[in-house]
Amino acid sequence: MAGASKPVDVSTKQQRIAELARQSPEMGFTSLAHLIDLKWMLEAFHRTRKDGAVGVDGQDGEDYAANLLGNLQSLRDRAKSGTYQAPPVRRAYIPKAGSATETRPLGIPTFEDKVLQRAVVMALEAIYEQDFKNCSYGFRPGRSAHQALASLRQQAMAMEGGWIVDVDIRKFFDTIDHGHLRDFLKRRIRDGVLLRLIGKWLNAGVLEDGCVTHPQEGSPQGGVVSPPTILPKAAFWRQ
Questions:
Q1: Considering the entire predicted model, what is its pTM?
Q2: Cα–Cα distance for residue pair 236/136, rounded to 1 Å
Q3: Rounded to whole angstroms, how far apart are CA atoms 65 and 67?
Q4: Distance (Å, rounded) from C-alpha 56 to C-alpha 86?
Q5: With b meaning 16 or more CB within 10 Å and e meaning fewer, what string describes 195-212?
Q6: What are the tens digits of pLDDT across the range 112-135?
C-alpha cells in the first residue's frame, strides 16, 4: 500500500535498543513489549534449540512447529495480556564438573516457555550487553571460556606474573534473592509486561517426583533466562 511504513526487522530493533542503552547508562526502559511482534517471536523460535530435553508437557520443537504461526501468535497475545501462565520446570540432575559425587540440578522449561524466554532475552540482552565491563566473559553472546583464558594469559604476561585466584560462589544460582533480583532489574527494565513475565518464571515452581514446590529463592538453571543466559548475570555482573 502506498505510503505504508516498511516493517522494521528484529536486528534493527535490537540495534536501536542497544544504542539507547549505550547513550543513557542510567535510563530505565519502560516500553519494550511493543517491539515483540510476530516477527520477533518467529526469530525467537528459530534461536531456540529444537532437540533439547522436554518440559512437563512433553512437547518438543517439532510438535510446536506443526502450528507454528498460530502457536506464536497465541503465545505473544497471552504474554502481553497477562494471561500467560508459566508452567513449572521439570527437575533433572547432571554430574557437576570437577566432582565425582556431586550433581547439579537443572530446571527444564516447556518448549513454549523456552521460546517466550528467548523473546524476552533478545530484548534484555541488547540493553545489558552495553553495561557489562569488557573483562566480563561469562554467559555472553559471542564470548567464550577460551577467550577469557586468552585474555587472562595476555594480562599475566604483561604483568610478568602474579597471583591468579579462582573463586566460586557455592550454589549461587540456587540462592539468588528474588527481591534483590527484581530491584536490580528495575534499574534498567521498567516495562510491566517483561517484569510480570520474569516474576512468573521466578514463581513457576519445580516439578520433581510428581510434586511441585515453589522455592522462595534461586533461579533454576537450564532455561533460557537462567544460565547459560542473561538474567542472573545481568543482575550481578553489571558495571
A1: 0.85
A2: 11
A3: 5
A4: 11
A5: bebbebbbebbbbbeeee
A6: 999 999 999 999 999 999 999 888
